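Students often ask what a 'structure token' actually looks like in practice. Rather than answer in the abstract, let us consider Leucyl aminopeptidase family protein, a protein of 469 residues. Its sequence is given first.
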Amino acid sequence: MPDMNHLLMPDRDQAARTIHIVTKAGFDAFVADLSPRGQAAMHAAQFTAAEGTHAILPGGEAEAWSVVAGIGDIADDDEAAHPWALASLPGNLPEGTYRLTGKVPVDCGLGWALGQYSFDRYLKTEAKAPRILLLPVDQDAVAHVAALAGAQALVRDLVNTPAEDMGPAELETAIRTEAETYGAAVRTVTGEALLSENFPAIHAVGRAAAPGREPRLVRLDWGDGSAPQLTLIGKGVCFDSGGLDVKGAIGMRLMKKDMGGAAHALALARLVMASKLPVRLTLLIAAVENSISADAFRPGDVIATREGLSVEIHNTDAEGRLVLCDALTLACEEDPDLILDFATLTGAARVALGPDLPAMMGNDDDLADAMIRAGKMVADPVWQLPLWKPYLKMLRSDIADLSNAAPGSFAGAITAGLYLSKFVSADTKWLHFDTFAWMPVDQPGRPRGGEALGLRAANEMLRARYAAR
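Now compare that with the structural description of the same chain:
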């Protein structure tokens, strides 16, 4: 799985080419200190220190050139996160090692590393030589940035992999790989055993899949048994046809990414384990394929859940909340300190917030506020939507305890969150993320394809909550 450690190192006076960091405010002073030749080079390149721009500054000899990189309007006292300030640079520079001078946003190493990410599993191309960045911080700070980059790349790799190579079994393998790395234990309940162990909703969604792609609940446990229990839950729908309420071609095209919630939860679990956060970690991934066959669950069916609530199926394409509800019930049975769940759950969240902002809902406003603050600190914003309880009436059923979806199109993300809330005990702190897990257009350091949205915010919040304990 992705490792970004070789792309970032502490600056210990190694041989390296210089990158001069220049803000717009400091641009005139920087140019004034250059030689006439350097000033001419800046003028010829039309360099103005705008964010994401760069120019080559010639030296006294042919090989003595350096780089000037613009980071825009960052003020000298600006402590906000700027992870993408240098993200476009590695793709425009030759291989080698580079050192930063000037105002250095410490977190710019994230963009530098992820600017070299590519998903090349199926391409006949040679791997590009690394561009190494020296950061003026200690080894622990560098390792933290590299771990964040590696976790984000893990999400990208998992989401970008087509369903033929990323089914429930392969997703389980990815979980076991992380468990082996960090000494965690893994247990899986698969196929018909889901019924005997009381996970009927997970089984109902995944039972139509082909042999070898059976539904499963994968559980990872790690950490000190006496520490506060942190439970992470991920929606692992490895492909979503929509079931018998089949999606159209356009809607189905990207459904390899419907396990993006599981990818986020696994990447966050990796960060928790790698940083040795003082928690008792449980990761629950409900991994299924929502397929169409004679055994598929049907609109109008009433299915059981681990909680004991009966659910009438209004729409087989609202399957993610069905697999999550059994996992949430299991999590609450263990009285954890905190539950976070991640899911590519609703198109309604994208209509409301677009692709960049994960919708967040939960039952504790202080916890939600902490998550929002953490997102701002690391430039990974999240946006809170209300769990507006009057909308629960949209989930009423005439023949079951509730329906899995509302009959209309109003408040689709909120009604999905409300459905999940019925499976969370009132005294358990819980946040739900409805994330897109996809970058629809190329941006510096963020190519089109799978993407982690809300991952770094969640990690920062957890560090603040638990690291001091």
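One point worth highlighting: The first strand starts at residue 8 and ends at 10. Ask yourself how you might have guessed this from the sequence alone, and why that guess would often be unreliable.
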